[in-house]
From TrEMBL:
Residues 8-166 form the N-acetyltransferase domain. It comes from Qipengyuania spongiae. SUPFAM superfamilies: Acyl-CoA N-acyltransferases (Nat). PROSITE patterns: GNAT. The lineage of its organism: Bacteria, Pseudomonadati, Pseudomonadota, Alphaproteobacteria, Sphingomonadales. Transmembrane segments: none annotated. This is GNAT family N-acetyltransferase.
């Protein structure tokens, strides 16, 4: 599945993307805010990420900025039996709205895929991610749960959010190619 936003191409990853992924994510400040990524993040981790099998119900994407290449990733996963969104952006591109743009695309794709509810979370020492989630319609649940961070090697407080897609009308008509 591919999706185009105003500035980004959301596309699947392939093994040959591993060097670009490693270059974009190879920063402890990024990886420490992710639950599943290890630190240090090496070439074998990038290859494993680039080679992950896609599930059409919960796809994940590389974020490609035309003329610049891979600047991050965004996608769906499962957390405690619910559909969760997640994202990361290379440090060079922080503060330019790319996380918000990619997250909006995920919300639209979630609706297109028939999901009625999405969840998300951020480690409490990463409030910028909470701002992104609120901008795209997620509401804090009021819960803070412990979630393991591979990069930190420890359970870390994670603020939880949810978005009921059934309560919203679609913002755009999606045209997706599989």
């Amino acid at each position: 599945m591919f999706h185009v936003t105003e500035r980004l191409l959301l596309r699947p990853s392939w093994p040959e993307d591993a060097p670009a992924i490693l270059s974009a994510i190879g920063d402890e400040a990024i990886v420490r805010n992710l639950a599943r990524a290890p630190w240090p993040y090496g070439p074998e981790d990038a290859l494993a990420f680039a080679s992950m099998k896609q599930d059409a119900r919960i796809p994940h994407f590389l974020l490609e900025l035309p003329g610049e290449g891979v600047i991050g990733s965004a996608g769906f996963g499962e957390q405690a039996g619910e559909i969760e969104i997640g994202y990361w952006i290379a440090r060079k591109w922080w503060g330019q709205g790319f996380a918000t743009e990619a997250s909006r695309a995920l919300v639209d794709l979630g609706r297109f895929l028939g999901h009625e509810r999405l969840v998300a979370g951020h480690f409490v020492d990463n409030p910028a991610s909470g701002k992104v989630l609120r901008k795209v319609g997620f509401q804090p649940t009021g819960a803070v749960a412990k979630r393991f961070s591979r990069a930190r090697g420890a359970e870390t407080d994670c603020a939880e959010y949810a978005l009921d897609l059934a309560e919203q009308s679609p913002r755009i008509e999606l045209k997706c190619a599989a």
